[in-house]
Amino acid sequence: MEFEDAAFVLTARAHGESGAIVELLTERHGKYAAHVAGGGSRKMKPFLQAGAPVTARYRARVSDQLGSATLEPAGEGPAALFDDKLALAGLSAAAAVAAGALPEREPHPGAYLAFEALSRAFAHPEIWPAVFVRFEAGLLEELGFGLDFSKCAATGATDDLVYVSPRTGRAVSREAGEPYRDRLLALPPFLLSSQARLQPGDVKAGLDLTAHFLEAFIFNPMNRPLPPARLWLVDRLAEAGRL
Q: 14, 36, 141, 149: least buried by Cβ within 10 Å?
């Protein structure tokens, strides 16, 4: 089995004296793990960071065994964010969520494109936290757990949608949800329209929303918690007053 594909590094860990086991999110083939010879060297470490864009050449003698890969850098990636620790935390969190949520060797081009778009957004401090929320919502949709904000689950109304059912992921209008507001999740306006202006608390509401469904639909069924990098990101955004 052999292919070449654009990819992002999701995780990398040392293996043996000088190698590394690297998880990649590839554009056409999905998530793949591979042994990278020399991956532990100083020369290669900079582009084995989470979120680094690479061109991967993958090869395996048998399709179901761990193959090997050679990687070439395909852009700056984390290096471009060296002076922005908050953006680096966001990139690490996105890579950790993708690594934990996506199945092995199953094509998910939508996930790759969403990760690519988020990577570009980190250059814009004022918007990337909201784009991060959209990335996670898109990942849920890509995996078959799309959230439905098109109309009220109770009445069918399309106006004044301000809540989300924590059970179904469907929007609920203000009027229909008011008696149950303590049991519903907040729906920030920017998830309804890209033209909506961010208000204080919107990013936190969005992160709480996607975290709930990532846990309920993906991580809990696998008996896994949300990745620590995702939890740390929320703490750092809070410390920076970005929620």
A: 14
